[in-house]
Amino acid sequence: MFLLGKRNTLGIVLLCTFFTLILTSCAPRQNDSASENDTKDKNVDSNDTMLPPISPIEGEFEQVYGWIKKDTICYSSKLEGVYKIYSYNIYTGKHIPLYESEAELSNVIINKKQLLIFSALSEEEGEIHIIDSKGNEILSRRLESYETDFAWNPHNENELLITTLTKEWESKVFTLDIQENVLIDFSVTTPFPQWLSMEEVMYLDWDQSNPSLYAPLKLFNLETEEENEVDLPNIYFIDQKNDYLITISSTVKEEEAVYTFYHTDLSKQGSIHVPRLSKFANWLVPNYTIYKDNFLTFSPKRNGNAETYQDSFELIEVDMESGQNKELFPDRDFEDQPIQISSDGKYCLYGYYFENMLDMETGEITPLFASDIPQ
């Protein structure tokens, strides 16, 4: 599920053990790689050298939200109480204003050439704005929600799954038809479902009355409205990217995390075992990103407790088809922070605010901002 924003992050800290487990089972949305569609962009600048740190047009940097195209990122700044969103070409230095609002930006999600902007207006209401890559508004509507999660259909850019939570953590799930601006009650009440295919969604069916470290993986067919359980034991995390289903499960002794990769028809491909760090009621899921068939993630050097772990992390690359893996830039120590790769594989946005750029050829990390991000 993505970059949750400042207000959402505070809310998650207050979740009970059950919702902690559910939230951990959802993919961080900031980890999505940029759309492969932009590899077809014919207007590619011949200069492939990234410019020095960005100077905003006006105001102070807030954060970067991700890649719009392989050479263009999306960021926000704040000036006199107004939040502004821009696109920025990392090679030409061109800024394009896309959106502005006096409401704080709680969440910004990039999907192909559309942006979803969510602002929490109060503890009971939020507002969605969807714009195209040029800033033209496609949709605007309000939601009754204290916390909100979005899952964009990778097979249909005009469809969203939306989970809303009240202040008492009661959840509802909806589908949003963007073209018609119609919100429809979803027949599955389990929060935070994700898309598996055009017709199927998936979710970990956590037991509210008996919290557990694991949950069964279930699939729901939107056309037949049939629910089926998949026989994959000891799963605590799922995600779907680039036509792959990604699961994380435990070994018998619960000392390692097992990453397993499936095609969306559930045919098993590669898998790896890595050390795992425990948390209060679950396990740490390190940040990751995907480039074509390659899965990049941070791996701790040993298992243990996430709160007391002092070592650095390794950045590893896994071929999802075969499971073959290697460590990238072994001479560099990494922290487990959000990471998102460009669709051409040249650079990664890296950091809690995506405030750094990692050169995937040299391993050099360059600050994107000319000044510190306000905390």
Note down, in words, how this protein is organized.
The protein is mainly β and 375 residues long. Strands 1-2-3-4 form a four-stranded antiparallel β-sheet, with no helix packed on it. Strands 5-6-7-8 form a four-stranded antiparallel β-sheet. It has a four-stranded antiparallel β-sheet with strand order 9-10-11-12, with no helix packed on it. The radius of gyration is 20 Å and the shape is globular. The N terminus is likely disordered.
Give me a quick take on this structure.
The protein is mainly beta and 375 residues long. It has 2 helices and 30 strands. The longest helix has 9 residues, at 5-13.
Describe the SSE topology.
Layout: H1 5-13, H2 17-24, E1 60-69, E2 72-79, E3 82-89, E4 95-101, E5 107-111, E6 114-120, E7 125-132, E8 137-144, E9 147-152, E10 159-165, E11 171-177, E12 182-185, E13 194-195, E14 200-204, E15 217-221, E16 227-230, E17 235-241, E18 244-250, E19 256-263, E20 268-275, E21 277-278, E22 288-291, E23 294-300, E24 304-305, E25 313-319, E26 325-328, E27 339-341, E28 347-350, E29 356-359, E30 365-367
Parallel strand pairs: 21-24
Antiparallel strand pairs: 1-2, 2-3, 3-4, 5-6, 6-7, 7-8, 9-10, 10-11, 11-12, 13-14, 14-15, 15-16, 17-18, 18-19, 19-20, 22-23, 23-25, 25-26, 27-28, 28-29, 29-30
Defining key terms:
2 helices; 375 residues; 4-stranded antiparallel beta sheet; 30 strands; disordered N terminus; mainly beta
Low-confidence stretches: 1-46
Helix content: under 10%
Structural class: mainly beta
What is the straight-line distance between the termini? 23 Å
Shape: globular
Radius of gyration based on Cα positions = 20 Å
Total strand segments? 30
Strand order of the largest sheet: 1-2-3-4
SS field, number of helical segments: 2
Beta fraction of the residues?
Answer: over 45%
Quick check: average pLDDT? 86
Largest sheet: 4 strands, antiparallel
